[in-house]
Amino acid sequence: MKPDGYDINAIYNMMKAIMGAGGFALPWAFARLGSAGGGAALFASAILGLLALRELAALKQHVEIQRNTVGATYVDVARAALGEAGALAVYGLSIMCSVGVTSAYLAFVASTLESLFPTRSYSQCLLSAAVFVLPTTWLRDFSLLSKLSQSGTAAVLLGYLVTIQSGSSEPVGWSETQSRYHWSLGPSSWQDLAQGFGPVAFLFCIHFLLFPVMTSARSSAAPGKFVQLATIAFLCAGLINAAFAYTCLAFFGPHVSSIVLNDLSQGTVYLVATKLLLCADLLCSYPLVFAAGREIVERSLFEEAVYQTLPHKEVLKEAPSPRLSGPGLLVDGRRCGLRFMLVATTVAVAQLDFTAILSLVGGVAQVFLAFVLPPLMAIRFMGSIMGIWRLMGNLLLLVAGLAAVTISLFASLIPAKQD
Asked: Which residues cross the membrane (predicted)?
């Protein structure tokens, strides 16, 4: 089947979900995972992610056939396979992912702004970013922000190119920095493995974001077709990110910063412009990701928010209210107060180290949604009709997911080493 416009958009949206701020932590992660271990972890995550996505697509289609409907969400699938306990688990983990990802956005923006304005402290930059994004969370229509954020993949790729170009002009090099990572092919300890895996999982365990993409891709109606689209997106993103991580590791050495952009010398206009563009992209993306978690909270408290499904995405819109002062503004005091508290929560989490957030969110919540729940639901819901090899594959994926969550929890309890 030749991909049509909807399928090309599906590939782009999947790549956009993968290609984000976490990519700039990959050189740091590869330094801990080792020169061979980094690539192995990245491509293993991509392959296992595709296997899990195949099961999620099959489960989604199975539920929709049973209910004679379309647009089943992750919560719908979890409820059908695991009951209310499964639905509650997806709700809770989705909130954790939403808060964690937006916190990582704020941490990245604050760290980048601090590098651009050395006279400002990290806390001051963080509060400035929070003051900027808070009013955007009060909007009732995110269509404009969604359009602005569509340039996110281009911004990340530009950031990769600028980082590589700047690093090639004044490389630190492996020969100038000696450490125990110097010739390591793999992680030197369980702590290195745990800390290095977090940023990789943060990038590729984005399954909770893909249900709207599955719904909008026309070819997903045919069994296995969406997985073919996902394979293209995951393979392209994997190759680009691996090339970037290895190149930066060669230029900046094993003591590379957790955000490699911060290792670049200051003063060039294009470098400053690239950093500002990345910050702008994340600030526009913040309310979109934030909406996924706060909508769950609002629906449980107010029971008034509804989804309007649009091509290629879901845009949250509030129920009509006579208190709206404009077409795009929300002045409902209850919601503004709740969103203020949720933004404050992301600010509090952003006080953690950037890589600590990636390890906790990516390695725990996202891995659970990507590698643990899909095989568990597949075995529970469709185990009786599975072939032996598919059943064994799901069991192995489940064990791998539980092991990854355990390792990542271990990492969250141990402070990241400062190079």
From this structure: 12-30, 36-53, 88-109, 193-214, 226-252, 272-292, 340-358, 364-383, 395-414
**What are the structural domains of the chain?**
5-412 (1.20.1740.10)
Taking residues 357-386, what's their average pLDDT?
89
CA distance 176 to 34: 18
Burial readout 155-190 (b: 16 or more C-beta within 10 A, e: otherwise)? bbebbbebbbebbeeeebebeeeeeebeebeebeee
Query: What residues form DSSP beta bridges with 306?
Result: 317
Our separate counts of H helices and E strands in the chain read: 16, 2
Rounded-to-integer distance, Cα 215 and Cα 70, Å: 8
Alpha carbons 149 and 50: distance in angstroms, whole number: 25
155-183 residue pLDDT tens: 888 889 988 888 877 655 544 444 444 45
> Partners of 314 in the beta sheet?
309
Look-up of token digits 């702004």: 113
What pLDDT score was predicted for residue 327? 45
The answer to whether 55 and 394 are in contact (CB under 8 A) is yes
Coil, strand or helix at 278: helix
Give the separation between CA 324 and CA 198, rounded to whole angstroms: 41
Nearest to 354 by CA among 288, 283, 416: 416
Local structure of 313: helix, strand or coil:
strand
Residue closest to 273 by CA, chosen among 285, 261, 263, 284: 261
In terms of Cα–Cα distance, which of 329, 326, 320, 316 is closest to 290? 316
Q: Specify the 3-state DSSP secondary structure of 314.
A: strand
Output the six-digit token pair for 260.
């490699």
Tokens, residue 311: 């091509």
Per DSSP, which regions of 236-383 are E strands? 306-310, 313-317
Q: Do the Cβ atoms of 128 and 368 come closer than 8 Å?
A: no
Cβ contact 356:416 at 8 Å? yes
**Strand, coil or helix: what is 182?**
coil
Higher pLDDT, 214 or 149: 214
**Rounded Cα–Cα distance for residues 156 and 21 (Å):** 7
The reported pTM is: 0.81
Which residues are bridge partners to 329 per DSSP?
Answer: 139
Nearest-angstrom CA–CA distance, 364 and 371: 10
Tokens of 248: 């930066």
Residue in the block written with tokens 């390792």: 407
Joined together, the tokens standing for residue 277 give 């563009």
Phi and psi for 141 in degrees, rounded to 5? -135, 120
